[in-house]
UniProtKB/TrEMBL annotation:
Entry superkingdom: Bacteria
Residue spans crossing the bilayer: none
Name by which UniProt lists this protein: Ornithine cyclodeaminase family protein
Stretches assigned to coiled coil: none
Database matches in SUPFAM superfamilies: NAD(P)-binding Rossmann-fold domains (SSF51735)
Length: 321
């Protein structure tokens, strides 16, 4: 399963990185890090460097007995070339000695980490009960990953796929049906009947009319980390109880919140709580059933580290070997 060259560095390819943990196990690792006292507000911020093909991201973190850094490329033109939009590697180090321990596939780590963060939020934001009616925006790897992750968490009454490319939307709906879910393609107005809306796109403008989202519904937006880009509109943000991974990161990178704030529609105190608040019980969800609940994720380095450590342990390795 794993490869360890003479230098002792464990190397995991994409399949190995993706296959060692379920999304639920990755979410457990994130929750464990937060319960152990990790403070996302103190996490180093993402560094971005313009590159010929797009953007190069550097995401370092250190916590407990480990440190690590993800070097990720975001190349918007890659899908047209038959290549992945997200590339990169993750280097995991022993914390006390900073000795390199493992090199993981960065894109596969991101593809696991992002839905794991969403699932952790949904554990606290979705009310138990009947199967959920889902609308998912997007048809790329994160849309597939989030569909799989939600099915680990809850039963679905229906899944509706909304995407720019009808063919790709149809393929994702067919995939959902292969998993036993009643699924079809749809249009943005389908959010009006949804219990859960997942936004997994590269959109820079709102995907739907936020006035249509029902009170009590949950919206998860994961597609952007740029102040000028957003998947949700001002109407939804103004109505919703808003949850984020970190106030500092959200107010630095989340266009879904920064644009409404610049418009004067919300103030800096509009965020209801953080993921850590929910996980540690410092606060309870405040939206059900009177208003929608929005979880806006930008992706953070501490999350990559927590999941990378869990993957490393799943190989049977530890910091003393």
């Amino acid at each position: 399963m794993t490869g360890t060259p003479a230098g002792g560095l464990l190397q995991l390819d994409a399949a190995q990185t993706a296959g060692l943990l379920t999304t639920a196990q990755a979410a457990d690792a994130l929750a464990g890090a937060l319960r152990a006292g990790l403070d996302p507000e103190s996490c180093p911020q993402r560094t971005s460097v313009a590159a010929p093909g797009g953007e190069l991201l550097l995401m370092p973190a250190a916590s407990g007995g480990y440190a690590g850094v993800k070097i990720a490329g975001v190349a918007p033109g890659n899908p047209a070339r038959g290549l992945p939009r997200i590339t990169g590697s993750y280097l995991l180090l022993d914390g006390p000695t900073l000795r390199p321990l493992a090199l993981l596939d960065g894109a596969a780590l991101t593809a696991l980490r992002t839905p794991a963060v969403s699932v952790l939020a949904l554990r606290h934001l979705t009310a138990p009960g009947r199967p959920l009616r889902l609308v998912v925006f997007g048809s790329g790897p994160q849309a597939y990953g989030h569909l799989d992750a939600v099915l680990e968490l809850r039963e679905l009454a229906e899944a509706v796929v909304v995407a720019r490319d009808p063919g790709r939307a149809g393929r994702l709906a067919a995939y959902a049906r292969s998993l036993g879910v009643q699924a079809r393609t749809g249009i943005p107005r389908d959010v009006a009947r949804a219990d859960l809306v997942l936004c997994c796109t590269t959109a820079r403008e709102p995907l739907f009319d936020g006035r249509l989202v029902a009170p009590g519904a949950v919206v998860v937006a994961v597609g952007s980390h740029e102040p000028e880009a957003r998947e949700t509109d001002t109407a939804l943000v103004r109505r919703a109880a808003v949850y984020v991974e970190s106030r500092a990161a959200a107010l630095r990178e989340a266009g879904d919140l920064l644009i409404p704030e610049a418009e004067g529609a919300i103030g800096p105190g509009h965020i209801s709580a953080t993921l850590a608040d929910l996980v540690t019980g410092r606060t309870s969800p405040g939206g059900r059933p009177s208003r929608p609940q929005l979880f806006k994720s930008v992706g953070m380095a501490w999350e990559d580290l927590a999941v990378a450590v869990a993957i490393y342990h799943a190989t049977g390795a530890n910091s003393e070997t």
